[in-house]
Amino acid sequence: MDAKEDLVEAFLFKHQGGYPDHFSTVLTVVLTVMLRSIGIPARLVAGFAPGEFNPFTGMYIVRNTDAYSMTEVYFPKYGWFAFDPIPGHALIPASIEEDWTFSVLRQFWNWVAGWLPSPVTGLLNGVFGTLFSWLFRAITWFIALFSQGWLSVLTGLIVGTTTAFLGLLGWV
């Protein structure tokens, strides 16, 4: 693309596509100008997407490529609504709770599953999904058993300490 070339014109007519920030720029500028020209309240807003979640630090990595703009349109009685121009862009970003638990293990499994045939992946997903759901239910039941009053908390501490001691003896 030339330095003197108009980004919107080159995007729409010459290249017929581009990077996500090109979609963002073209749609927001064109849409905002068109809506305002016919008297509909619209504004251009810019910001950053959440970025990529880092499971080791618990924070998001936001890069320059996460910057984009959107058009907000005002609807009477409802307020401002944003229109995201990036195709395939998540409407609601993932939260920390969805990405945090076992995210490194999930990334490793996705990498391994990419190399396996789909019937094998489906079988392993079913087997491990069932095992982990049973394990989760057992742990939940065990915690619920010992969390109903002071006596059950004391009993849980005694059982936990005894189990840890027996496990240590077995290890040694």
How does the SSE layout of this entry go?
Elements: H1 7-15, H2 20-37, E1 42-48, E2 52-54, E3 59-61, E4 67-75, E5 79-83, H3 96-100, H4 103-115, H5 118-145, H6 150-171
Helix pairs in contact: 1-2
* Total beta strand runs: 5
Q: List the secondary-structure elements in sequence, H or E.
A: HHEEEEEHHHH
Q: How is the main sheet built?
A: 3 strands, antiparallel
Shape: elongated
Number of structural domains: 2
Structural class: alpha+beta
Descriptive keywords:
single chain; 172 residues; alpha+beta; three-stranded antiparallel β-sheet; 6 helices; 5 strands
Task: Tell me what the structure shows.
The protein has 172 residues and is of the alpha+beta class. The protein folds into two domains: 7-95, no CATH class; 103-171, no CATH class. Helices cover 55% and strands 16% of the residues. It has helices at residues 7-15, 20-37, 96-100, 103-115, 118-145, 150-171; strands at residues 42-48, 52-54, 59-61, 67-75, 79-83. The strands form two sheets. It has a three-stranded antiparallel β-sheet with strand order 1-4-5. Strands 2-3 form a two-stranded antiparallel ribbon. The longest helix has 28 residues, at 118-145. The chain is elongated, with a radius of gyration of 26 Å.
